[in-house]
Specification:
This is Cardiolipin synthase B. Keywords: Cell membrane, Lipid biosynthesis, Lipid metabolism, Membrane, Phospholipid biosynthesis, Phospholipid metabolism, Transferase. It catalyses: 2 a 1,2-diacyl-sn-glycero-3-phospho-(1'-sn-glycerol) = a cardiolipin + glycerol. Catalyzes the phosphatidyl group transfer from one phosphatidylglycerol molecule to another to form cardiolipin (CL) (diphosphatidylglycerol) and glycerol. This protein folds into two domains: 172 residues, Endonuclease Chain A (Endonuclease, Chain A), CATH 3.30.870; 183 residues, Endonuclease Chain A (Endonuclease, Chain A, 2-Layer Sandwich), CATH 3.30.870.10. The two termini are 21 Å apart. With 387 residues, it is α/β, with parallel strands linked by helices. Strands 8-16-14-13-9-11-12-17 form an eight-stranded mixed β-sheet, sandwiched between helices. A seven-stranded mixed β-sheet has the order 1-7-6-5-2-3-4, sandwiched between helices. Helices cover 41% and strands 22% of the residues.
Length: 387
């Protein structure tokens, strides 16, 4: 497992939900002169996605090399086929990640883009309309999906570009020797200086060299926390180490707050609730966001450490799927993200400890069954899963 390499002098802007993200992304694509890499879990068939697709096709038609990677499961079998056909007709190159589970169960859950090796985007937003649910039902949402991404300028963009280029090659038709040579090249750090303002590093999770990198970044931040830790995730089912880190931080006086999404999947909610009693007893504050779909995977610790990315606090993100976060050591950015999370907390409903102190036998049985099923599933698909 390689350590996180930080680069200095990055210019990072927080983008709140699609209202900020999609105009910035499309503007960067429309300004592209020679190259675009875009990687997303979902590339939907809606008006917002159509605008991004048209921008990519316009770029290709003016001679820009455009390469798009989507996840076969997240985007859907039929949509992946249609998208490939439409992109091919417009000279956009497209590859689907792991069709028909040919490379195991892991999914490509990352959301990244690099334009002309100068402008980068990383976050939690798929290419999908903010007002539509991201499951198969595609139901209207009561308010825009609550999510975040960042736009990046500076040395970190080179690091992201190298990873996107490597991903494109990996999922193509590469011979074994070419794969080995590409792997050796990826071992060379592309980070710049390690001191200065706006330090930031790309933190990846895969099943080869970065199996626990994202989880370790969270563990280190929580271990060093002295005042506060705000963590946000739509799906909450962490392993024992991360749960322990949350509890220990709260017990030594750190104000630990979890802002969690609920209402998407009933079974997922039951699994999350199975963790509540011990966390609440340790002093962790839990707030459930019910205003609309919460999809953000962000955190701020002590106003000097922040992260934005695609990784949830569950076994799939931490132990199975390919994920990408950016860790930022910058006080101004951390304060900006903190304010956004605090607004989300204000819109949420705090979980009272007494509500989980004396659960009925039925609730205990329901949460226990959900946890048991989740644990069995994770033990089947994640080799290094620990409770």
């Amino acid at each position: 497992m390689r350590p996180v390499s930080f680069s200095a002098s990055n210019h990072i802007t927080l983008l709140h939900s699609g209202a900020a993200f999609f105009p910035a992304l499309i503007a960067a694509i429309d300004a592209a002169r020679f190259e675009i890499y875009l990687e997303t879990y979902i590339f939907a068939a809606d008006e917002t996605a159509a605008q991004v697709q048209l921008a990519l096709e316009r770029a290709a038609q003016r001679g820009v090399k455009v390469r798009v990677i989507t996840d076969w499961l997240g985007t859907g079998r039929q949509r992946s086929l249609t998208l490939s056909q439409e992109f091919q007709a417009a000279a956009v190159m497209h590859r689907a990640f792991n069709p028909w589970f040919r490379r195991g169960v892991a999914r490509m859950h990352r959301k990244m883009c690099v334009v002309d090796r100068q402008t980068g985007f990383v976050g939690g937003l798929n290419i999908i309309d903010d007002m539509v649910s991201d499951d198969d039902r595609r139901l209207p949402l009561p308010a825009p999906r609550w999510d975040f991404a960042i736009s990046i300028g500076g040395p970190l963009v080179t690091v992201i570009h190298v990873e996107l280029e490597a991903q494109w090659l990996r999922i193509g038709e590469m011979k074994l020797l070419e794969r080995f040579q590409q792997f050796k090249r990826s071992r060379i750090s592309t980070a710049g200086a390690t001191q200065g303002a706006a330090l930031a590093g790309l933190v990846l999770r895969d099943n080869l060299r970065n199996r626990r990198t994202i989880q370790r970044a969270y563990l280190q931040a929580l271990g060093r926390a002295r005042q506060s830790a705000l963590l946000t995730s739509p799906y909450f089912a962490p392993g024992r180490k991360l749960r322990r880190a949350l509890e220990m931080a709260a017990k030594r006086g750190v104000e630990v707050t979890l802002l969690l999404g609920v209402g998407h999947y009933r079974l997922q909610d039951a699994v999350s609730h199975s963790y509540y009693p011990k966390l609440l007893k340790a002093g962790v504050r839990i707030v459930e966001y019910r205003k609309t779909a919460l999809h953000a995977k962000v955190a701020v610790v002590d106003d000097n450490w922040a992260t934005v990315g695609s990784s949830n606090f569950d076994g799939l993100s931490l132990l199975v799927n390919q994920e990408a976060n950016v860790v930022i050591n910058d006080a101004e950015f951390s304060r900006t993200l903190r304010r956004q999370i605090e607004e989300g907390i204000a819109d949420g409903v705090e979980v009272e400890a007494k509500a989980f102190a004396n659960l009925s036998w039925f609730s205990r049985a329901r949460y226990g069954t959900a946890f048991f099923l989740y644990r069995m599933l994770m033990r089947i698909i994640a080799i290094d899963y620990r409770e």
